[in-house]
Amino acid sequence: MFRQIAKAATLAVVLVGAATVPSRAQDQKGTLVFAVESLGAQTLDPILEGRPGNAVYQAVMYDSLVGFDLKKGGVGPGVAERWELAPDGLAWTFYIRPGQTFHNGDKLTAHDVKFSLERQMGPGSQASAAASMRRTIKSIEVIDDLTVKVQTTSPQIGMPAGLSRAVAPEGAIMPKAYIERVGEEEFRKKPIGSGPWKFVRNVPGDRIEFTAVTTPHWRGRPHFKDLHLLLVPEESTRVAMVRTGEAAIASIGPETMLGASRAGLEVLSVPGTMQAVFQFWGTYKPEVKASPIAKVRVRQALSLAIDRRQVIEHVMNGKARMPYPFATFSYTDYFSTERWEKWSAEAYRYDPVLAKKILAEEGYPNGFELKFANTALPGTQFMVDIGTAIADMWTKIGVKVTLKHYEWGSFAPMERGDQAGLIGWASMYRTAGRPDAPWRYDGAFSPESIQRLLGDKDNCAEECQEFVKTNRALLGELDKTKRTALTDHMVELTANSWTVVPILEGMGYYAINTKKVGQFDPIAGRHELGDVFERIPRPEQKPWKK
What we know:
Distance between the termini: 43 Å
CATH architecture of the largest domain: 3-Layer(aba) Sandwich
Strand order of the largest sheet: 8-9-10-1-11-16-12-15-13-14
Number of domains: 2
Structural class: alpha+beta
Number of strands: 16
Number of helices: 18
Shape: globular
Strand content: 15-25%
Radius of gyration: 24 Å
């Protein structure tokens, strides 16, 4: 089953790649300039930075062991053209596509795959999944130059997704011989990958520059000769650069879309990139027992008081959609999409009358006081506006909201450790669009996770215990039908707890100068464009439709 899925995805990638490769290397012309709000830590070593930087610029020069399904989003072939799960579920075998090389001409083999995975889980790695990789990977064996086997300590059905650019950066493949020859310090100064773009220079706080490979590449040989990624924090400046042609593409927020469109720019929306949610912290703790938010129906009432369609129309300028349950999307693997789409339409409806009725029945006819932390994760500043809007809607059912704004840098540390500053609060949060739901559920609800929203090791009641049981069964289930049933049960369990409540499904937004680049399609669920720059044509090759 898994092999057939991988083969089908391989065909999709080959067809799309073949359609975008120029016939001759000399056809590569000009410079593609992209203005972005953040370049993260701006390091080109895959073990030194998490998702934000990796997805913008590390994806440009590094290929990943597992890649994308370019059409529907989610997992597809990458450096490995296919993979197989052992009958006992305790090993994954990855088959490397032949003919791949690094930018210095060295062949990419299974030895580089083994080296890269071990480096990601090594002591010097800052990868977010390093600890879990050390816990779940028993050994990595090179069978031959194009075959590598990863033995696991327990069944890891989601491992290919975890090593995919569609989910995480830990699958980036690095050149073993080069790093061993020049050392890590020199590698970080002059990094080498196997992707469609080669590193040229890195100017901290300003830009990163690449040049295109001139030989065919399975992801597609770039149409442009050079690629410049510019750090421009101010959104108005980014839009002005696109308008004048100084940049071809710029990341923008929904509040800027109308202005960009009126200025004659094309506005591109990337579907299914994130969910804006609100969530409750420590509702299971003894000290929160007397709080209104400790009651499930009160949390549900707060959801019923939100007019999501109004938020979509007025905050997001119509460029968003009603959500599925937490961390699920139309492309989520092993998930009953139609069932949950119907459920969500009913559950996330706007019904302030019922909301007030529930509050009265629960003992709060005049509302209650609610502390709400309003914050935005990097790249989604509009979350603050969403938080302000829903807080206003809650006041209309009698809830007295104390709204406190946090910069992400000051909010993020609060969710670690004992979470003292958040217990008993609600807050804004975000989940990214990824095909593998269990990894996000584990991070939000497991009593050993950072967020532990259903319970911790000292307070894990029936609901929490059922989640742990379901999550463990899901990790080891090999049968597709049973795996889907377990995913649905996990979604149902957490959705009915009303602990994390989706507000809307958002998109990635970009302003485009159609005189600088031609029409291109993004990848569903992938906000960043680091994986599509090689597929972007010049304007004369494929003009935007009028």
